[in-house]
Amino acid sequence: MFRKVLIANRGEIAIRVLRACKLLGLETVGVYSKADSDSLHLKFADETICIGPSASRESYLNIENIIGATEITGAQAIHPGYGFLAENEDFAKACADNDIILIGPSPEAIALTGNKAEAKEAMANAGVPVIPGFSSVDIDESTALREAEKIGFPVLLKASLGGGGKGMRVVNNKQELVAALPIVKAEAKAAFGSDEIYIEKFIGRARHIEIQLLGDKHGNMLHLFERDCSIQRRNQKLVEEVPSPMVTPELRKSMGEAAVKGALSIGYTGAGTMEFLVDSKGNFYFMEFNARIQVEHPITEMVTGVDIVSQQIKIAMGEKLPFKQEDITLRGHSIECRINAEDHTKEFLPSPGLIEKWNPPSGPHVRVDSHCYAGYRITPAYDSLLAKLIVHGDSREEAIRLMRQALDEFEIEGVDNLIEFHKSIMMSRHFIAGDYDTLSVEENRI
To answer: Is residue 207 among the annotated active site residues?
Structure first.
């Protein structure tokens, strides 16, 4: 259906997509901004093209430039990776208007899943458990106070079109809500171009559990089990593992079935992830739907043996899923640590600069997804992710030991990074016991 794919992204995900394309015998086009002219993925792409200046809005977020690059290079398809334009309805429409295949869901699915309020309504209609909440295009102070009292404090204010933890604030009473409302609306406007916000019941001591989905264009939908993403700070994930140490076989089955039902109800195709919050009693609630590949997809690949990115591409080509739900089994345990260029002793302050030494770990059951190398300069213009360190063991205990060993072997000099932070996590008695939640890092309990 297509033979050349333009990868509309940068960093480690550009390399990950490039590898999947090559495995399928497809030609690749790597794009780059002027700040990324020394990016590693450009060395492996069949063809490269500059799409603009360093600023994301003039390059990786510039729809016109990316469509133009696709036409110039003769690519018939675009893989957007994650972030940037991966969940942009206008970009999906532009691809369709220019007869370019987007390796992702339809513009309609992106529009629906991209609006938290609409997605929540759709999931509720499909019978998926949802958190009590309220949304409006124009929530003023009096409306916010009235709805928050109905829901009951504490509540969570968040951008309806948001993602990645931006534009979110927990408020415990009326005074905090009045102070936070204009701040959250301003953050939402700045980050996502809309100040539409959503108010929902805040579930404390929750686990952040997500379900990986794959759906083809022939009506087949299945899940690849769960990922536990509860180790995070300021709603940004730091450590993920699969299977979750708190999810029982019964809960796994219920969440998987609910996610499949919800995705089928909106006609979703491609790779997607349904995110849930699970309370201390094991009740789960729909949080949001990510219409793209996730950063943490490798751990699911490790325990299922499914190449999720290759399946994304095959689905876009119109192929049927080659397996059924009963064919997917869990094999062992996998953990991922996000190695960011940040200083965890200074509130995770980003640390751009020149990487003077880069010596990643290797060996059986260790995987490093990265775009970095010695001599590469980390720019402050983009995300601070240096590498995703992934291990796979026969058991959770073995996976933890493997991760400790891999972290000990990982050497990075020149920029601050989270290696020591992750070492402390892997030694934490709470993490070892599987006793943690979304606030454990911020409250210094882990």
So the answer is: no
